Amino acid sequence: MIIAAILAPSVGSAEIYRWVDEAGRVHFSDRWNQGSEKVSTAPKTDADAPAPALPQPDSPDVEFLGPYSALDIIAPAANETLTQQDAGLPVSLMVNPSLMEGHQMAILLDEAPLTVASGATQFRLTGTALGSHRLQVRVTGENGSVVAQSAPRRFHVRKPDEPGQLR
Q1: 150 falls within a domain
Q2: Residues 81 and 137 both lie in one domain
Q3: Above 90 in pLDDT, residue 154?
Q4: Three-class DSSP category at 83
Q5: For residue 7, what are the domain limits?
Q6: Quick one: pLDDT at residue 106?
Q7: Is 58 among the domain residues?
Q8: 3-class secondary-structure state, position 61
Q9: Segment Disordered: which positions (predicted)?
Q10: Number of C-alpha atoms within 13 angstroms, CB side, residue 4?
Q11: Which of the four, 1, 6, 49, 68, has the lowest number of CB atoms within 10 Å?
Q12: Is 21:27 a contact under the CB 8 Å cutoff?
């Protein structure tokens, strides 16, 4: 019994060698042989396993929530026509839960990214040209990959009415 306890640590730290003979058979031994290579006996940990691939959106035109329960554009409404204003066009977003650590949010206006200051969900777009536009929210992870995105939203911008003009 005492001998087994003394030998147990040496068995756990024994080196194992692997080689293939002339007939193609694989052999293992605790002794080195010519042409053998040392085999790692360290137990694998979760740190050794590759990180699982995060799902990605199938298309840039579909909603993909990823780790969020909600990611949406509240304003402007779908196909809403807004009047161009000096103060800018109001935009309101919903992100639930709030932006996660390491994630960055960007607004895509006609496919061009506009960075949103510190995950703000209320702001104004300035300098927006007259006509139809496409707006989308995209959240990226630390490595720059898309982790969530809203469905695109179309809206329209027109000139303000002239004084006395009827609509």
Answers
A1: yes
A2: yes
A3: yes
A4: strand
A5: 2-39
A6: 87
A7: no
A8: coil
A9: 34-57
A10: 1
A11: 1
A12: yes
User: For residue 50, is it within any domain?
Assistant: no
Q: What is the pLDDT of residue 133?
A: 92
Assess if residue 131 is contained within a domain: yes
Please state the domain count of the chain: 2
Q: What's 76's domain CATH number? A: 2.60.40.10
Whole-number Cα distances in Å, 82 to 50, 90, 118, 132, 160: 49, 9, 26, 10, 9
Residue 3 banded pLDDT, cuts 50, 70, 90? very low
Token pair recorded at residue 75? 């304003």
Residue labelled with tokens 């040392």? 38
Cβ within 8 Å of residue 56, ≥6 positions away: 64, 145, 146
Angle of CA points 43, 49, 55, to nearest 5°: 160
Is residue 91 located within the same domain as residue 133?
A: yes
76: preceding bond cis by omega (within 30 degrees): yes
C-alpha span between 25 and 37 (Å, rounded):
15
Task: For residue range 103-114, list pLDDT tens digits in order.
Answer: 988 888 998 888
Examine the domain organization and report whether 31 and 77 are in the same domain.
no
DSSP string, 120-158: -SEEEE-SPPSEEEEEEEEEE-TTS-EEEEPPPEEEEEE
Indicate whether 7 pLDDT > 60: no
Note the pTM of the prediction, 2 decimals: 0.59
